[in-house]
Amino acid sequence: MAIDELEKKLRPPEAQLAPYPSKVITLASGETMVVRECRREDTPALLGTVYPLIGVAKDYYDVVATRMYNEILSWFRYRIANMFALVGTVNGEIAGIVTSRHVDSKVGMSLHTLAIKRGLRVGAQLFAAKMEHHLEYLKEDEVWVVAESPIGFKRWMIEYELEDRSALYPAVRHELGGVPTFVLTRKLWDAVKAAKCTGSRPVPAELLKTADKLIMPNEYVQLPGWKRNS
Amino acid sequence: MGVRVGIVGAGHCRFGNSSEYDVVDVIGYSVNAAFRDAGGIHLRKEVDQVFVGNMASGLFNRETAVASALVSRMDMEPCPAELVENGPASGASAVKMGYMCVASGLADVVLVAAGEVMRSVTGWESTDIVATMAHKEAEYNMGLTLPGFAGMVTRLYMEKYGMTERDLALVAVKDHANGAKNTYAHVQIPVTIDAIADGPNASVVNNYVAEPLRMYSTCPVSDGSAAIILVNMDSPKAKLFKRKPVRIAGIGSATDTHCVHNRKDPLVLDAVRLSAEKAYKMAGIGPKDISFAELHDAFVIFELMNSEEVGFFERGKSFLAVRNHETDIDGRLPINPSGGLKAKGHPVGATGVSQVFELVRQLRGEAEEGRQVKDPKYGMAVNFGGFGNNVITTILARD
Amino acid sequence: MIDFSAYGEQTPHIKGIRCGKCGAVYYPAPMVCGKCDALRDPTTNKGWEEFDLDGACTLLTWTRVWNLPEGFNKKYLLFGMVEFENGLRASGRIEMEGDPKSGMKLTARAIEADERPGKPVKVLVFS
Predict the structure, then answer these.
(1) How confident is the model at residue C4 (pLDDT cuts 50, 70, 90)?
(2) Cα gap C6→B12, rounded to integer Å
(3) Do B201 and A150 touch (CB under 8 A)?
(4) CB burial readout C7-25, b (16+ within 10 A) else e
(5) Distance, in angstroms, between A28 CA and closest chain B CA?
(6) What residues in A contact C66, CB-CB < 8 Å?
(7) Chains near A, with 3+ CB pairs < 8 A?
(8) pTM score of the predicted model
(9) What is the DSSP letter of A9?
(10) Prediction ipTM score
């Protein structure tokens, strides 16, 4: 498709990012979660999945969902550079989504983690997958992380023992609005990855196929009584 | 023969996250359910005494005197009401107080309700609040928590008896299989042994909490409530209630050292053994007569140790019984058919009444399909206050 | 009289206590001696003798806690239960690299810790 000159000027420069190899994780329930990189054609299902959560104030779902909606939309419409999203699916249904951005060969910028299926540590697995992509496949030196909820702070900052660089503000400034910046360095990642990151590769073709066409959840535990098509 | 005390109404809410509700309303929900079960909300006017079990609403919710609040919320004034606090055994202690009150002749009808809303604070804060029941200077100040003690005791048990982490996971698999069928359980998700112990992702999916205890060796943090109505079965008031009473056959309780390190052997839970012995004696039965049991399994090691202390299995052998499926719902002696604290959840103050509620359901034959114990005669509940240092055992009978 | 020692640098100690009447030792201090029924007045400890609970001890069991309570902004802490040479037991933190081993010999000391709000507290550390 031809892109007009002005649109070309508006689009950010894109680097060719190494792909994230899909993996499969057996959750405690015995269900298998396929984790794969999102593609452009996934956008309607991703937006449709995130959208119902923008009114859920509990656990800061509203902040994360509105920002993630924006990120996915901006990525689709070429208004954010070098972003990637990973999705976790159980029987094809979206269980969680993470977003992130490759800044340059040294730095990754972690954006958001949204767990839809609760109680099975889906968010923790997807966050770990995101860090894995940054450090193992995009081969950056470090990932900058902020937390917008107390649970995020505990999960990422304390459990990963992230390096606190908030004293270096504004020289070190995460893109998400100046919230104190913490950093997952390669050394810290190497210390935690065995305990935090798991999954098997390659994903059997039949299983991978279930994640091909993303299915939006019909119900959300975060939205009691809500049904997609009612 | 003394006064016969029976349970003629039982109510429960689904355990989980009720943090947006007031703790008194959460308890009131189960009270309503108990009266509906007993024959109607009008029966609240027949109540002579209310006992409320709650551990720490002052800390979790900045609300105190919840028994007084409950009678007022339920339009039950001027009924006498008291709060009973015995840590995570507050519920069973409230049942015991209710029993004593009826047995003494002070009351013919007693409402026992219990509840806790813990998720009003973060998980880290609730861990801290629960830890306040440990010895202040010698335990709490060290940073020790209940999971920490459970981890240390589990390691001792493993080193002494050869139990493995996989054995702990087998208890969780059994409990979650039951909890998945329990309408009132917090976690209604079955888990598989492959996913939490054997498979390649298990060590990450089932992460360590307090080594060697993992996430699926510990109970979730839950909110919830339960309520029961006790009557003097021989009083005229008993006839006002439509449900056939389920009789309280035995109650026993005992205490142990506050500091865990001061027990001769931290693997021996004296208070559990002694409380069970008293309850058996009062009921005139022994361990072999028990059809099923609800055992306090805030950590799965407790289910195993409790099942040994109450005489179901030899010391150090209970995990072998789990391996052999003897404690499954269709096994020789089902343990935690409700899912236990592990899957049903553990709103600390509510747990003791919730366990008794489960005994009532099972003995009436009203449990959900797939988790109803076959033809039960006697059910036992063991509820821990503290780290096994204040324990109540209750035995109910289907007459 | 003013106790000027209160203004000096304090070295934290955790105390065991000995019954002056029968010699039984305890940690933490009870209000009554379980051996001879001697009462302890916690305001004076008269007739009882405090001593430092530190030095050589044997590790009975241990755990690494990953989900620490509020205030403890650490990935994990090691905790252990030990037995001292006088037979007293105690629980506290372990400081070491790698995994401890039940039965290993450790040395106990007291530190001050301030993870929680309020005054700093005394903590037993085994290393």
Answers:
(1) confident
(2) 56
(3) no
(4) eeeeeeebbbbbbeeeeeb
(5) 5
(6) 159
(7) B, C
(8) 0.93
(9) H
(10) 0.95
